[in-house]
């Protein structure tokens, strides 16, 4: 290091670097530890860990196929519902809201992010689910020719079973969408807000309407931010635990029918099976956790790259 | 291609307007015309009437949600039809998009309000008893009336766990942020990348990590301190990232001035940079607390649920608000569920208070 440095400064530098290293070590330790604990399990079950759909630790049959499928189903449904709403809300706040109310609306979105996940889980379970069951039945009756909307029961029966459409990946996805909306919305809004004023004004002076400004200036500028926000939301949706656990009824079978009862996600599996886990089950759960860790790490890194690049690029200086 | 045509149409009309000096006024961008308001109101009433007739009377359809969706879609259709009567295509598309955007924002806004207020409604029977805040659940059966027992043990547990997590996470998070902004170097780049990736780490994995290392590996109890460690693991990246943003806002001129006056790096950081960024740093701390206070997933793994009061984080399990809510709702016992909703409402109030604090602190920062 710099020999002319004052002793206090040397302490400061080493101290700050030390804290940085500690944090680096903690974060790497999580991944390293989960990997270290999970590798024996992965070795033992080999490829069948990803192809076996049943989870029967007592009979030594363990596989993540159905659980991974459920994880992606719930996350994708959350995105399909949440991202359009987040996008429209971000557009509203940055383009339509009165200037004096804008910071209030930004606050409401931040508040939405701060409300604990369990509150959304309760809301989805007790308020939303009765309505969502009707929606699920309607989708099944009218769009049932789309494979994912098929169901295992006859929805046209006079006495149709409400429970066959409850506790499904669809309803869990709605609950998770409540958690991805504020995240995606605030990222998109901050990207939209960075649209250069000069380009905005140029469009307006050429006679563009507000929609014209959005389509010709804001969206092209913010495209990468929108994709990045979607990826960030995807990462969050993959790891969401408590709302999913509250809603779903656990099922370990390959189920592409997202409206039908029963699914499982990796994070809900970990939280659910933990109480009664024996030692071998624990290492299986740790391996599942490691898989989840790797997936979210990849998704988040891609998202971070996209969002950062959208901020630094494209801006024009006049 | 369509983009240029749209602009051409608008430009043409602007050009023609130029011929008449009386019309040569700047276009008013954010003012609603009578036509616009009349169109919106008319479309709203008309679509309501149509949907009521078709949906409620002619077809045996039912369900509030379906009605609202059908009403909104008909509203969009009528908006297009009505606008087309007297307006060019650009105006029609502008109004349609405006209606869609407003609709989306209203859905999201209503969801926040409903989700946050519904726990108060469901929890009110428990919330208006004073013993709910001052008693614990020791010796109280789940079926006991709401005039017995309370959540004081969970309240105190959450306060202690969050407090300990802050004591651990704040120095590490803030120290990392200082390292990233004030020291830098190649290592800082690595740390920044890793911390950024870790902000979105599922909290359940933090719980799993702490459980496997401390409770399985080192044979610890499932006590309050283990919970705090799991919370701190989730909180450090959040605090580090938002503190870094706050420190980055401090103008470099201030740092240069400090150094030019002969202060060392450390003195500059301590006497100039941190005081300047203090409101922002406080905000980042509160953001971190809000993130962990309601986190339930790691608690399910690390924490044991109790019914009694325990203020010692190092011995015996300690209950907390999110855990109380979760086990109460899952119990299936109506009175216990009401208590759980009450606890959820208290949790929302806790987060709301933190949130208002954040807003006040960050507003202080903005004038400077």
Provide a short characterization of the protein structure:
By secondary structure, chain A is mainly alpha-helical. Chain A has helices at residues 7-45, 48-51, 65-96, 99-114, 117-142, 169-193, 197-205, 210-239, 242-247, 266-273, 279-312; strands at 55-56, 61-62.
Would you give an account of this structure?
The complex is a heterodimer of chains A (318) and B (368). In chain A, helix 4 (99-114) runs antiparallel to helix 6. In chain A, strand 1 and strand 2 form a beta hairpin. With 318 residues, chain A is mainly α. Chain A has eleven helices and two strands, in the order ααββααααααααα. A two-stranded antiparallel ribbon of chain A has the order 1-2. By secondary structure, chain B is mainly α. Chain B has 14 helices and no strands. In chain B, helix 8 crosses helix 9 (224-249). The longest helix of chain B has 39 residues, at 89-127. The two termini of chain B are 46 Å apart. In chain B, 43% of the residues are buried.
State the largest interface: A-B, 99 and 105 residues
What oligomeric arrangement do these chains adopt? heterodimer
Number of strands of chain A: 2
Low-confidence stretches of chain B: 1-19
List descriptors:
heterodimer; A: 318 residues; mainly alpha; two-stranded antiparallel sheet; 11 helices; 2 strands; 1% strand; disordered C terminus; B: 368 residues; 14 helices; disordered N terminus
Fold topology:
The complex is a heterodimer of chains A (318) and B (368).
Chain A: H1 7-45, H2 48-51, E1 55-56, E2 61-62, H3 65-96, H4 99-114, H5 117-142, H6 169-193, H7 197-205, H8 210-239, H9 242-247, H10 266-273, H11 279-312
Antiparallel strand pairs in A: 1-2
Helix pairs in contact in A: 1-11, 3-6, 3-8, 4-6, 5-6, 6-8, 7-8, 8-11, 10-11
Chain B: H1 2-19, H2 34-58, H3 64-84, H4 89-127, H5 131-134, H6 152-183, H7 186-198, H8 203-217, H9 224-249, H10 252-260, H11 265-293, H12 297-302, H13 321-331, H14 334-365
Helix pairs in contact in B: 2-3, 3-4, 4-14, 6-7, 6-9, 6-11, 6-13, 7-9, 8-9, 9-11, 10-11, 11-14, 13-14
């Amino acid at each position: 290091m710099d020999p002319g440095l004052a002793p206090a400064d040397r302490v400061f530098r080493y101290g700050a670097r030390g804290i940085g290293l500690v944090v680096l070590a903690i974060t790497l330790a999580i991944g390293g530890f989960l990997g270290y604990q999970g590798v024996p399990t992965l070795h033992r079950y080999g490829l069948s860990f990803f192809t076996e759909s049943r989870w029967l630790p007592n009979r030594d049959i363990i596989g993540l196929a159905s659980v991974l499928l459920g994880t992606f189903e719930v996350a994708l449904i959350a995105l399909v519902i949440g991202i359009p709403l987040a996008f429209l809300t971000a557009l509203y706040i940055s383009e339509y809201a009165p200037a004096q109310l804008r910071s209030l609306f930004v606050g409401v979105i931040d508040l939405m992010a701060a409300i604990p996940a369990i509150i959304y889980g309760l809301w989805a379970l007790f308020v939303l689910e009765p309505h969502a069951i009707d929606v699920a039945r309607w989708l099944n009756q009218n769009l049932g020719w789309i494979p994912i909307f098929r169901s295992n029961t006859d929805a046209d029966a006079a006495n149709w079973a409400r429970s066959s459409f409850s506790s499904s990946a669809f309803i869990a996805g709605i609950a998770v969408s409540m958690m991805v909306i504020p995240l995606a919305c605030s990222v998109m809004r901050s990207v939209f807000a960075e649209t250069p004023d000069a380009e905005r004004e140029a469009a307006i002076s050429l006679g563009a309407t507000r929609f014209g400004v959005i389509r010709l200036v804001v969206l092209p500028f913010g495209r990468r931010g929108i994709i990045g926000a979607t990826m960030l939301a995807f990462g969050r949706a993959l790891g969401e635990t408590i709302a999913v656990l509250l809603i779903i009824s656990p099922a370990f079978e390959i189920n592409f029918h997202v409206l039908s009862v029963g699914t499982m996600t990796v994070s809900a599996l970990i939280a659910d099976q933990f109480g009664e886990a024996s030692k071998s089950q624990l290492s299986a759960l740790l391996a599942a956790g490691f898989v989840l860790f790797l997936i979210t790490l990849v998704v988040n890194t891609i998202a971070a790259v996209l969002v950062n690049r959208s901020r630094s690029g494209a801006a024009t200086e006049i | 291609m369509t983009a240029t045509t749209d602009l051409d149409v608008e430009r043409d009309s602007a050009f023609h307007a130029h011929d008449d000096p009386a019309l040569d006024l700047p276009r008013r961008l954010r003012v609603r015309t009578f036509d616009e308001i009349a169109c919106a109101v008319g479309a709203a009433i008309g679509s309501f009437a149509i949907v009521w007739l078709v949906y409620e009377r002619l077809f045996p359809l039912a369900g509030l949600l379906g009605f609202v969706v059908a009403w909104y879609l008909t509203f969009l259709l009528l908006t297009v039809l009505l606008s087309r009567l007297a307006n060019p295509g650009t105006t029609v598309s502008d109004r349609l998009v405006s209606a869609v955007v407003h609709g989306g924002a209203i859905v999201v806004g209503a969801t926040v309000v409903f989700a946050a207020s519904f726990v108060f409604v469901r929890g009110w029977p428990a919330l208006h008893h004073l013993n709910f805040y001052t008693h614990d659940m020791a010796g109280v059966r789940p079926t006991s009336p709401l005039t017995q027992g309370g959540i004081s043990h969970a309240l105190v547990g959450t306060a202690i766990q969050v407090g300990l997590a802050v004591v651990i996470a704040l120095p590490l998070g803030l120290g990392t942020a200082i390292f990233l902004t004030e020291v830098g170097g190649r290592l800082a780049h690595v740390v920044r990348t890793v911390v950024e990736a870790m902000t979105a780490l599922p909290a359940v994995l933090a719980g799993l990590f702490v459980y496997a290392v401390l409770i399985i590996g080192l044979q610890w109890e499932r006590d309050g301190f283990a919970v705090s460690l799991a919370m701190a693991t989730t909180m450090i990246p959040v605090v580090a990232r938002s503190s870094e943003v706050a420190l980055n806002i401090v103008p470099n001129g201030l740092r240069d001035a400090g150094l030019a006056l002969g202060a060392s790096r450390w003195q500059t950081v301590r006497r100039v940079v941190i005081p300047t960024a203090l409101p922002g740093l406080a905000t980042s701390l509160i953001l971190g607390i809000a993130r962990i206070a309601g986190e339930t997933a790691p608690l399910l793994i690390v924490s044991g649920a109790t019914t009694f009061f325990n203020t010692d984080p190092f011995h015996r399990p300690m209950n907390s608000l999110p855990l109380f809510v979760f086990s109460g709702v899952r119990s299936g016992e109506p009175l216990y569920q009401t208590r759980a909703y009450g606890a959820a409402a208290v949790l929302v109030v806790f987060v709301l208070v933190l949130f208002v604090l954040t807003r006040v602190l960050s507003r202080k920062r903005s004038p400077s």
